[in-house]
Design a protein that fits this description.
The structure is a homodimer. Chain A is α+β, with helices and mostly antiparallel strands. The first copy, chain A, contains 19 helices and 31 strands. Chains A, B: This is Glycosyl hydrolase family 65 protein. Chains A, B: GO terms for molecular function: hydrolase activity. Chains A, B: Keywords: Hydrolase. Chains A, B: Belongs to the glycosyl hydrolase 65 family.
Chain lengths: ~775, ~775
């Protein structure tokens, strides 16, 4: 599986730079230059209107439409919900002497697009050579405010280079956006108002009645406003400014947009409108400059606590900062009720749905950078507990069955083989609760909400499982584990093991609560109707859980019969046949010992401390050669384990495209949006992989190694309220606390109390050779 | 699984009689009173127009429409073809003094609907009490000619009981028929002509461009035609007759319709039209009486060679004749290129598609009643060989992959789990060729067409299979066997065994041809590019085929791991949960040792002579209690094997609803159409079950038993050109040849030469107790 970089952007430690415009790559750039603030996101599309290939995407977290699904069978979904493309609040048109700027038609030079990690802005500049010889330097800058969730802003700077005269600017809001996947728009405008140089509209989605308030105001400097005229068109409200501009003088038009999304239908339109107007009022005094300063200050603080520095490897330095930037853009826990879609807020692919990636790949980033955000993610699951309980009933089970793909807590995967056979979101949630408990020790949350989820999830796993008739052991039949290339199997090792852990953890929390929180225990028992027999049953099930395992080789069998699956040498598959989903008959994918992504290795990563290095080595050596990494989540887990078992070269090779998966468009589908959850995996790859962080055992452990190509790297992490800085070069490792009290951790297996002074230990000899 | 009869029709040995009209049951009756002649079929709908619940269905074998399928993956179908509802050539309207007859609105009495097995007609009579007090006895009779495939006819007899006066009859053709499953009509009329009292139209389907020529002529007797007026409406052509009728005198309007279906688009409309007109010309002189006489004569001949008589059990007597009647109506091999849809030509359910039922359940009926029809069925597969080869390439295999569901030879199942995992049509075709070869010895067909199919089918099975990594044996991974309650398994015993047989048979035919038909062998080798290595490979694969089997118990394991499937006591499932497809979550169906229909027992039926009675008993005793018979094809196979292993009471119990599945609406879905292929299974149930016929071993074997409830039963069968009559009562069995030369068979294991004089042997003691 050779993945090949498509190098295009300039390498810079603090930004991504595109020089020159390539229409063929425009959609890729739109993904890379996407901005978001967890509440909303916009792709980096040319807001002035573009006649070429573009995906004009503007998304609001949790705002969805739905379409009916022709379901054949009971227990499969009937309605599929997806993140709907929403208002284009950046809508702009620029006209000079009747010619409208359009990069698909116009002549221009000096194109440059920059994403600045420290400013949190995207800038796009060019010189427009109009047909009548007029030349204008134009710069668009935009931001999506990290400090004010509802606010987006745009600054347009126009400098006539060889003339003085008139320029027409139309700027406004457009609800005519198409949802490309569905080939239609979903919005109607139910209310609108034009006021001063701005306007407001209330849009409503066709099927779900989700509503979006959107408004804008304009502020012009450096040019005379000859005329300002309101424009009303279907689903569109704008202001047309006629400006007199002077040669060599920059005319600046600032736009501040306020958006407010309403998923519930409870409130009447009038109330929703008033809420929107109130938000607009709160923002009225904010200038673009102020918003921009706030934005830079926010990012400065982020980089102070969350930066990763890599000396001697500019590409990965840029890559990992891009990843951290995207993680914060996608999610930072300021707004309750959100989750992380597989593509974040950067495209329509995966329909804006969240998967198990949230708890297994993204949560660690937040646990060690932003524990509030970590909690908020778990809160999402608690808010959707009723949906999960309903879903369990739909599949003839009890308790809570968390959906494999969701935007609002309901199942939104229309493939029964995934929605009904993939059980591993529930155990991922339980793992997330356990992990959060270990690192953050938020017992209030655990004893009230966490435990209720654990009880209901356990109930599901206690009714979905069955007893093998021959083995006499408990397990899950008719399932698909994390490895999606084994479609419908029995006793998937990962699912069985995670269920066993679930039962044990639920029981231990309930046991702990007997002593620590008897009142809370009483409350949750009453609320859930928990019975003692259930606890006994869960103990039985955990004890009798089948974990397919070959004593002789020490290899876990991914599922019953996996060892007999026909062998294929994955290196014999021609590169042209990837991705296999597109090139192989669907059924053929599922008939080999080939795996798509880690499954046995996944639980060895999650419960790392429970397995010896030897066990990890044996299983790595068996499964890695069978894995084709058709999931972008796959290489990082392999890299982390490879580093642990001393396969440093492999660890680095697997790492190679982790941080730059999208920047270098390795999978050739960045055009659809960023691989947001893979970005989280890239962070884990450095911190868990090279940093050797382990957070599943007793306390926290570090065991850094360093790729030979790097001079030095360092990362920060928040742990028990303190900020730790880990710095490693080819010779030594330094760990210190930069903020807060000293903390106890283990370094290379040795206990250490880390304070401001820090400790220094030598880097072990076996360093990583650069990938050759 | 308690199936309960819904007794409704009168029991009669030679007809089905409905007395009184029950609107709730009208759709069921429309299925029961459906007529067909393999070329076309009409449901028994009220042709005078009915405002109540009706499925006005008129079908032409092989005439199809298609709809796009939203396929997610490669190797799954993109277009689904289905038998399209076509012209209502029985279209009639009767008006008296402005009131139009409609059984949903009108007052009427004396309703009686009769299907006559000897006349091959459906008669429907009633007395209409019009609002103004006028009373008319009305009788509709219809037939679909068994001797003239394109011809259908209707006789309407109207007798004014208490008045003389005017009656208006509108009669014609209507292409406005709705395809209910799709909620739309598919026809446009591309040409029309009105001539004399009749008219002709050429209809064309919207997506596929299939065409249907339809025409009618009217002939009136016993009434004065006051006026005859052509009616042209959209998609409709009719004649409106104003008749003067005399009290007490029967006015008769006969309608002869000529229909011709054109599936190919090659010929221009004009040519197709001319063909239709020529057919109309050939029928011009045929009166209803003539057609009716021909029809009765045809059926007389059928009953002479194919009747089954049961003395002492009027319900099963009626039932089995209904079955035989339907088998001939659905298919008798006069028209090349047809197959047998799961519902024949009686409804939209199963979309008119043919499955593996054709070769495994229907073929034996034709082998022993109408060998020409048997051959024609196999010809269907030969005609569609190119489609099967194309399909094999779509799933990344070689050779020919016959579709699990088809109308024209292309795959038309839109569920990947069936279309891509169910491999057993190909081996069913091979089995059919083998069976046909054994019974009919048509070597010309075998050496030219049969062998070509065998080679291509073998190629498919040699590329779809794989080697188990642990077992070192060959087999099929990711498959669904006949038992559709084990959805995606490895080494399904049935599939593996049938593939082994396929390879062996293909090799033996090729071997035989070396001596018997070297030129034909050369031809087929050249045509298929057959290589010696392939033959060697097939030998290897057959030899190393994995047949999961437990030496200790003698039980074949349905597939790898079946013995570990969680147990469910199928009798613990509440009756209200059937059918399980409607009441259980889809994934739940597949997680037990519960089977839907015979799988291991199926191959023990097909290759009966290769298994000892002990082996059959052991496997029957294991699998029967796990089978819920959710397929209507299931009980008959169990009944046949139960009879063989001496479980006579069970044999009779399983037989109970075989012949009357539709007459008594056991599955409560006869409204959708008849269970045509189950009807074939009912025939096998008597002939293979009680008759003890075995046709898979050396020569033919009989071993009759008799249910205690029966005084006597007899059946005829054609074998090696002779007609055998088998007659059995509680004391003895008589077998004789009634036509043709003497034949050698075995009776209760003893060789016997049967001639006109016949042989008589005592009935063995263990007779069947009536089901209690």
């Amino acid at each position: 599986m050779a993945k090949i970089a498509d190098k295009y952007f300039k390498v810079d430690p603090w930004s991504v730079v595109e020089e020159g415009f390539d229409p063929e790559r425009n959609r890729v750039s739109e993904s890379i230059f996407a901005l978001g603030n967890e509440y909303m996101g916009v792709r980096g599309y040319p807001e002035e209107g573009y006649g070429g290939d573009t995906l004009l995407g503007s998304y609001f977290n949790g705002l969805y439409e739905e379409m009916p699904v022709q379901g054949h069978y009971r227990g499969t979904i009937r309605s599929l919900r997806f993140m709907v493309n929403a208002v284009d609040w950046l809508y702009t048109r620029i006209t000079v002497d009747g010619e409208q700027l359009d990069l698909a038609q116009s002549r221009f030079s000096g194109f440059r697009r920059v994403l600045d990690f420290r400013k949190g802005t995207v800038q796009r500049e060019l010189v427009w050579h109009a047909k009548d010889g007029k030349e204008l330097a134009i710069c668009f800058e935009r931001l999506v405010s990290m400090t004010r969730s509802h606010v987006g802003a745009q600054r347009m700077t126009i400098t006539p280079l060889n003339f003085s005269g008139t320029v027409q600017i139309r700027s406004g809001l457009d609800f005519n956006t198409l949802h490309e996947d569905q080939g239609r728009g979903f919005w109607s405008v139910v209310r609108r108002e034009q006021a001063g140089s701005g306007a407001a509209m209330l849009g409503r989605t066709a099927n779900t009645g989700n509503r979006l308030y959107s408004s804008f105001t304009l502020h012009t400097q450096g040019a005379e406003v000859v005329r300002s005229e309101p424009i009303e068109q279907e689903h569109l409200a704008a202001t047309e400014l006629t400006l007199h501009v002077e040669q060599g003088q920059a005319a600046v038009v600032d736009k501040v947009a306020v958006n407010a999304a309403f998923v519930t239908c409870a409130e009447p339109d009038a109330a929703v409108w008033d809420e929107g107007q109130a938000l607009l009022g709160q923002t009225a005094e904010a200038s673009y400059d102020e918003l921009s300063h706030e934005q830079a200050a926010y990012w400065e603080e982020i980089w102070r606590t969350s930066d990763i520095r890599i000396e001697g490897d500019p590409e990965n330095q840029q890559g990992i900062r891009f990843c951290i930037f995207q993680m914060y853009q996608t999610y930072h826990g300021d707004n309750p009720g959100f989750n992380i879609g597989a593509k974040g807020l950067t495209g329509e692919a995966y329909r804006g749905l969240a998967f198990w990636d949230t708890e297994t790949y993204c949560l660690p980033f937040y646990l060690f950078n932003n524990p509030k955000a970590a909690k908020s993610l778990l809160e999402f699951r608690y808010r959707s507990l009723e949906h999960a309980k309903q879903r369990a009933r739909e599949v003839d089970c009890e308790g809570a069955f968390y959906p494999i793909a969701t935007i609002d807590g309901t199942e939104s995967c229309d493939l029964w083989q995934h929605s009904n056979l993939q059980l591993h979101v529930g155990t991922a949630v339980a793992y997330g609760l356990w992990h959060y408990d270990r690192i953050v020790s938020d017992k209030a949350f655990l004893y009230e909400k966490g435990v209720e989820m654990l009880v209901e999830i356990s109930r599901f796993y206690a009714t979905r499982g069955q007893w093998g008739q021959k083995s006499g052991q408990y397990g899950y039949f008719g399932v698909m584990g994390p490895d999606e290339f084994q479609l419908m199997v029995n006793n998937n090792c990962y699912i069985n093991l995670m269920a066993k852990k679930l039962f044990e953890y639920t029981r231990s929390v309930l046991e702990e609560m007997k002593a620590e929180a008897p009142a809370a225990l009483k409350a949750v028992s009453a609320k859930t109707g928990l019975r003692d027999e259930e606890l006994e049953n869960w103990a039985q099930l955990a004890e009798n859980m089948k974990i397919p395992y070959d004593e002789e080789t020490g290899i876990y069998e991914e599922h019953d019969g996996f060892f007999d699956m026909p062998h294929i040498d994955i290196h014999s598959i021609p590169v042209t046949e990837f991705p296999l989903y597109s090139h192989w008959s669907y059924d053929r994918l599922y008939r080999y010992d080939m795996i798509k992504q880690p499954d046995v290795l996944m639980f060895m990563f999650l419960y790392n401390s429970e397995y010896t290095t030897e066990a990890k080595r044996a299983n790595y050596e068996y499964y890695e050669p069978r894995c084709i990494h058709e999931s972008s989540l796959s290489p990082s887990i392999h890299s982390i384990l490879a580093a642990e078992i001393g396969r440093h070269e492999e660890a680095y090779n697997f790492f190679e495209f982790a941080t730059r998966l999208d920047l270098d468009n390795y999978n050739r589908n960045t055009r659809e949006g960023l691989h947001t959850t893979s970005i989280a995996a890239a962070w884990m790859n450095i911190v868990y992989g090279f940093g050797g962080l382990r957070s599943d055992g007793e306390g926290l452990a570090l065991a850094p190694s360093i790729p030979q190509a790097w001079d030095e790297y360092s990362f920060n992490m928040t742990y028990q309220g303190s900020v730790l800085e880990i710095k490693a070069d080819q010779h030594r490792v330094r760990v210190r606390v930069t903020e807060g009290d000293s903390v106890a951790i283990r370094i290379y297996g040795e206990n250490a109390e880390i304070g401001m002074a820090g400790v220094e230990v030598p880097m072990p000899k076996t360093t990583v050779k650069a990938g050759s």
